[in-house]
Design a protein that fits this description.
Two copies of one chain form a homodimer. The first copy, chain A, has helices at about 5-25, 55-65, 85-100, 110-125, 140-155, 160-165, 180-185, 210-220, 245-255, 290-295, 310-315, 345-380, 405-420, 450-470, and strands spanning about 75, 135, 170-175, 195-200, 225-230, 255-260, 285-290, 300-305, 385, 395-400, 425-435, 435-440. With about 475 residues, chain A is α/β, with parallel strands linked by helices. Chain A has a domain at about 90-350: Type I PLP-dependent aspartate aminotransferase-like (Major domain) (Aspartate Aminotransferase, domain 2, 3-Layer(aba) Sandwich), CATH 3.40.640. In chain A, the strands form two sheets. Chain A has a seven-stranded mixed beta sheet, sandwiched between helices.
């Protein structure tokens, strides 16, 4: 493709994206396809000869798009959102165009220095105390793994890197902690049996006294408690583990304190939400995802550490072919994480923060919280519906409850979820809270307005009536 | 930003990229800035108010661009390239515009099914035997870590995930193996002291008899040999470890055999290079990076495994909030690696493979190999220059050698490299081969033509004369 063709298709694709976002509401949120349906339309053999972009783009529209689930749809209330914005798309376009790889300072000094600066901006924006250093990771899964590895090395005096981890280090979290912690525990060699699930309170947040008890029991039994994960906005119910008492216990017993604010961290942009970070001065590491609730497209996870020296010592490698003359004077972010190669992700953060201003980002979070409270109010007022957890952020967990037994209720609500999603106009997902099947309604997509939340509620209510009638309590 | 502004800036940025690529040759390859220079031009405080895209883009051009090192420059002969192409940029634009996240089949069926299909295409394209299953990872570092973790679990009967790794598993590689292996060994809890460096032959490739000896010694000493990494195109010199004898030894002793073809794998597109995969049927896992030499922009790493069951069992997690009704019938790629969230990377591969056709991609590799041979020939013929390793792919390792002592030669060649790069017209990096400081000249950028390689050689020769005169052998 020559440059003139690139210009032509570039303009066409930009317009396609603008059209897509303008009309996204008309598409079903979830792809309406069966397993294998898309694959069946893709040739088994790679093309020997070059094909024209026109054909490829045509197939993109005919074959790929019907199989996409639309994360930017205003009816997206599933999981947590993966936010996006026109400004972030534009930055990604430039990033792709330049195609730089920022493993070392020298391989693009601006990529490193801009990352350093926007991470410092983010730290200030959410009110994380001074002294934390930031680095962009792809996902919170990776960031939490980095935390587990740094903690492992600190706990063993950097011996695990050398000899392997040969003694049981214990890790503390709750049943509500994100599954990436368990995954990280396996990867880092702690062993899943050394994960202690600390009981939660009625709002699904960690009970600090229970944490203290678990640590003491493990110490008495000869284990070495090493790591505690607090979650600021759990995936199931957005519960906020109380950082302050957890931090006091962690620091008393020498545990690494990591906070996973993948979803909730963005809320701290607003001073009225800053309580979730109360006690943050005790943190060793903290992660939140601008790609979830801060208009920056996936992937972009902001990881902060109190002591970058430990992080670097955990990961650094010094092969001859990567050495540069400026190494003593610069940050080489390759030593701040698992991957060697690094995309220039700071650019989109810079574009987003400047385009909206801190003020604009705050307004966005506030509006979503207001809409979630609205939905929560409706669900609480409606006979036969109940709310199953506090909603400190933008997530409401609810279910239909017409008084039938718990098992029947779980079946009923599973049917309710399917019926709601069959509408194609909204997409909700589920969880289980204390044994109860719960529907999760997240408000967090950029395009979601009050009318969409009202529509969602109308659909929920109509589906509620329908499934109640279909599944008689008998 | 409203949609009409998005269109306007989108068109402007597309044109900017076209202009950038058209005129990239006029820029110095490496950024000419000192540490801290870019940072000093970025405000310390995040903006409270929204700023206009015009200002942001202006700053991008004024502040960021002078600090970029241009990986797409035709004078890029450093490290390995991070290839790009107009078609790949266009696909990334669409990917960013849609903003989907492909952790599960249901979160975008087309993303999963297209990934499955293009990975199967890639397998066929490079002649990897049937029966390997593919998944896209971000980088080869991550892929190699996945291999180490799968091997750890297979070797311990999936006990390490549960209890932690409590016994010494040994790993085999050469001094030339990429540093990501050492990093992965630390992360996965093997412990660096359990890495055995197998001696290399005169061409820097693994000596299989030495491997066999090391395994036997370890077995006799009570270690459990678990993993051997063969490299197809080492970073320092592009040496090809001989897969066939290594595979026979690995299979005899029950070791996991991983091949790191991050750079070299793409060469197997051409039948005349397929010998590098001779013995591939014994592989347990294999990785190569389309983002290095196959016109696909960073990041995109193709990871293949013989037994996806082991990979999935190593990583799978089943939290309630991720369960879907179709789980038994579909691939959920979140269980094929470390991260939960996944970008839709298959789209750019699909665009690239179709746009160039296998034929076009082969022609691209062949031309680079031809140009590297040209350069190698010139370096061999030139008095005072010598070539330090075989060049089976697109990399030539050479140095100036006017007969002075080895230590003085190392100083001389370090000065040579600095002088060459000070030209701003080419960018080469270095390594050390058998104690000798070597300059690495890689031919692999999309825009590099014969005239650029001739220019590089002219610069090298002129710099050679200059530094020889400056650094008299005394």
């Amino acid at each position: 493709m020559d440059n003139s063709q690139f210009r032509r298709y570039g303009h066409e694709f930009v317009d396609w994206i603008a059209d897509y976002l303008e009309t996204i509401e008309k598409r079903p949120v979830r792809a309406v396809v069966s397993p294998g349906e898309i694959a069946a339309r893709l040739p088994a053999e790679p093309p020997e000869k070059a094909e024209r972009m026109e054909e490829i783009f045509n197939d993109f529209n005919k074959i790929i798009m019907p199989g996409m689930t639309h994360w930017q749809h205003p009816g997206w209330h599933a999981y947590f959102p993966a936010n996006n914005s026109p400004e972030s798309i534009l930055a990604e376009l430039l990033t792709a165009g330049i195609g730089a790889q920022g493993m070392s300072w020298v391989t693009s000094p601006a990529a490193t220095e801009l990352e350093d600066r926007v991470m410092e901006w983010l730290r200030k924006m959410i009110g994380l105390p001074e002294g934390f250093s930031g680095v962009i990771q792809d996902t919170a899964s990776t960031a939490t793994l980095c935390a587990l590895l740094s903690a492992r090395e600190r706990a063993t005096g950097f011996e695990a890197n050398e000899k392997g981890l040969r003694r049981p280090l214990t890790v503390y979290a709750t049943s509500e902690t994100h599954s990436s912690l368990e995954k990280g525990i396996k990867i880092a060699g702690y062993g899943r049996e050394n994960l202690r699930l600390v009981p939660v309170d009625s709002g699904f947040a960690m009970n600090p006294e229970a944490l203290q008890g678990a640590i003491l029991r493990d110490k008495a039994a000869g284990f070495q408690p090493a790591f505690v994960a607090a979650t600021l906005g759990t995936t199931s119910s957005s519960a906020i583990d109380p950082l302050k008492p957890i931090g006091e216990i962690a620091s008393r017993h020498g545990l690494w304190l990591h906070a996973d604010g993948a979803y909730g961290g963005t809320a701290a942009l607003c001073p009225e939400n800053r309580w979730i970070l109360d006690g943050a001065e005790k943190l060793d590491s903290f992660v939140f995802n601008p790609h979830k609730w801060m208009l920056t497209n996936f992937d972009c996870s902001a990881y902060f550490v109190k002591d970058p020296g430990t992080l670097i010592r955990t990961f650094e490698i010094h092969p001859e072919y990567l050495k540069t003359g400026v190494d003593p004077y610069v940050k080489n972010y390759r030593d701040w994480g698992i991957q060697l190669g690094r995309r220039f992700r700071a650019l989109k953060l810079w574009f987003v923060i400047r385009s909206y201003g801190v003020e604009g980002l705050r307004a966005f979070v506030r509006e979503h919280q207001r809409l979630a409270r609205l939905f929560r109010g409706w669900a609480m007022e409606e006979p036969d519906f109940e709310v199953l957890a506090p909603s400190p952020l933008g997530l409401v967990c609810f279910r239909l409850n017409d008084g039938r037994g718990e098992e029947a209720l779980n079946r009923l609500n599973r049917a309710l979820l399917d019926d709601i999603n069959a509408s194609g106009r909204v997409f909700l997902t589920h969880t289980v809270l204390g044994g109860r099947f719960a529907l999760r309604m997240v408000v967090g997509s950029r395009l979601t307005q009050e009318r969409h939340v009202r529509l969602a509620w109308d659909i929920v209510r109509a589906s509620g009536r329908r499934v109640k009638a279909e599944f008689s309590p008998a």
